[in-house]
User: Fold this.
Amino acid sequence: MGTTQATTYCRICEPLCGLTATVRDGELAELRPDRDHPLSAGFACPKGIAMAEVQNDPDRVLRPLRRRPDGGFDEVGWDEALADIARRLGRLRGDEIGWYFGNSATFSYSHPLWLNGFMRALGSPHLYSAGSQDVNNRLAASALLYGSPALVPIPDLKRTDLLLMLGANPLVSHGSLITAPRIKEELAAVVRRGGRVVVADPRRTETARVHEHLPVAPDGDAWLLLSLLNVLFEERLADERACARQATGAATLRRLAADFPPERTEGRSGVPTATVRALARDLAAAERAVVYGRTGTCLGRHGTLTAFLIDAVTLVTGNLDRPGGAVFGAAPLRTDELLRLSGLATYGKTRSRVGGFPDVLGTFPAGVMAEEITTPGRGRMRALLVSAGNPLRTVPGTAALDAALDRLDLLVCIDLYVTETGRKADYVLPATTFLEREDFPLPFLQNHLTPYVTWTEPVVAPRGEARQEWEIIDELARRMGLGIGALWPQRLAHRLGVRPSPRFLVDALLRTGPRGDWYGLRRGGLSLRRLRDEPHGVVLAEHQRTGTLRRRILHRDKRVRLAPDEIVSEIARLREAPEPAADFPLRLIGLRELRSHNSWMHNAPALMRGRRTHAARVSPEDAAAHGLADGDRCRITSAHGSVELPVRVTDEMTPGTVAVPHGWDHEGGWRVANAAGGANVNALASPDPGDLERLAGMAHLNGIPVALARAENGGPGSGGPGNVSASR
Assistant:
C-alpha cells in the first residue's frame, strides 16, 4: 500500500490545530503539525502529536464487549450487542432512559446531532453532559443577557489594548470558547503594540508568569467584578451612551453594585482596594478593552453570576460588540436560525425532576444523575448510555454516582477504552478516533478569532470493528423504530426509512448558508467539494464583524438585559454569603496540565514520560504551617471526602490555596493510566444536588473548603497511587 500523507486537524481541544498524518500500509505512522495551515501555521501541542499513540493503543476497545457476571468482558458481534441493547431499552418508557456525553463528543459534528435527535425521539429529559463541569454557566449567562444561550462573545485579541482574563490559562489550555491556535502569539502581540494582559487567578499560572498576575481569592471573581462595576459607576467612568444604546437595567445594576465597594469586597476578592480602583480606571480609559473568563470562573458557588458580570463590565466600559472588545462570531451556516428552529437553543424551557434545575441547551446537570437513578417515582432513570465521557472521574460526588450506577437496569458505554465508568457497563461499544472519521468544526464556527472553515476526510480506516457514534445511534434508533433528527423533516424522513447522512446535511447547510454556492448559482461559494479541494481550510475574513449584536439578540426589545430577576436574586445571595468556616481554612482549586486532557489521555506513553506524578500544589507558607516538605505525602480533607497525594511546594500558589489537577486515579482497562496512580480529586466535592449552582447546575469544583495535613507515613519517596475516600 505504501506511504501517503494526509491533511487533517486536531479535535482534542478548541484551537483545532492543523495536522499532517503519515499513513504507512493503511496504518497511522506519525502525526506532525501542518505547516501550511493558515491559522496554526506549524503549531500543535504535545497532546495532538501523541494522538498517534491513542490511535494505535493496544488497550483500545476494538470490538463490542459484553460484561460477564464476574465483572470481566467477552467480545460479541455488533448485531448481537445492538439487538440486546435495543430490546432492553424498548422495555422501558422513554423518560426512563438517560444519556451522558463527555467533552470529546463536542468535537464531532455528527455525534451531538444524532444523540440529541435520539433523546428527543424517546421523549426523555435525561440528557446530561460535561458542560455542567465546564461551560453551562456561560451559556446560561448568555441566555439571560441576550436571550440565547448560544450567543457567546469572544475577546477580540487582535485589536484590543487591555485584556482582563479571569480563570483562564491559555498558554496551557490554548484557549476555550475562543478558537485561536496561536493564542500565545496573539497575547504577546497585545503587549508588543503597547497594550496589557492582566491575568486574575489564585495561582501564578503559566500565562500569568508571562503577563501581569493579579492574585485573587478562590471563588472571588464575582466580588472583584462587582467592585469594578462599583468604581465604574461611582466615579462616573461608565460609558452611559453604550448603556443607553445597548441595554436595559443599567440603573438597577448601578444600585446593586453600590453595595460592593472595593473596601468592602477586599476580604472576599483577595484584591486590594487600590488595585481594584486602578484596574477599573484603566478599563474605562483604554481605547479598546475586554474582560474574558473561562473554566476557573465557572466552577465556584456563583458561576453564572460571574459569567454575567464579565459581559456587564465589558458593556459598561463601552466595549461590547466593538473592535478590540467582546465580539460575536458568525458562522458560514445560518447557525442562529438553525438553533432556533431546531429547539436546541434552550435555557429553562424544562426543569430537572431532581432539584428543579433549568435545562441548558436541553441538558441537565450531571450532578443530579445519581439522585435521578435512586429517587423513586415516574421518570426515574433506569438505563444510561455514556458516550465519550467518564463521569466516575469527572462528576462531583463520584462515590454516590458509583453506587447509583449499580442500580441501573442497563449501562452502555461508547468509547475508545474501558474507562472507570466502562468497567461497570453491561456493554462497551468501540468508537472511532477522530482520525478515523470525517469531520466539520460545527460547534466552533462562531468561536474563531479569524473567521475560518474547514473539513476533513478520515485519515485511516477504523481499527477493528470501531464505528462512528452517529452510526451506532442511528442503528439503535432503526432497531427501536425511532425517527431521529434535529429538524422535523429529518425526523419524518427517518420514519419513512430515508436516513440522510451527516455529510449530506452539512453540505446542504453550507451551500444554502450566507457564504454558500447555492448549488452553483454563486461562483466561489462554499460547499463540501470546495472544502475537500482546500484541505488546509478557508479563511473567510481578517476579523469577526462588529455591530451585529442588535439583530442577533432574541429579547423582544433587542437590548442586553443587565438586571434580570435571576441575577438580582443571585447578587442578593452573594451579599449574604457566610464567611468561610474555620474547620476547613484552605480553598481547593483545579488546574490544567499541558499533557493531560480531562481523564482520557493518561494512557499515551509520550504524555506520561518524565516520571509524571499527580501532586497537590501548595505555597511555601502553607507547607511550612502544616509541616510539609516538597515530595511529602499530604492528606486533603473536605466535608465530603479526603484524598492523599504528594505535595509540590511552589511559590506560584497564593497562601490559603491548594491546586490539584482533575482526571487522575485510574482503574480501567488502560494499563499505562492505571500505573500512573494519583487521586480522584472530585471525591472532595459534594454529591448533594442542593450544592450545585442554582442558575445552571454547575458543579462546585473550585473554591472547595479543605483542610491540609501530613499523611501518615507521608515522608519523601512514599509515592504510588493516591488513596481516596469519600462519604455521602
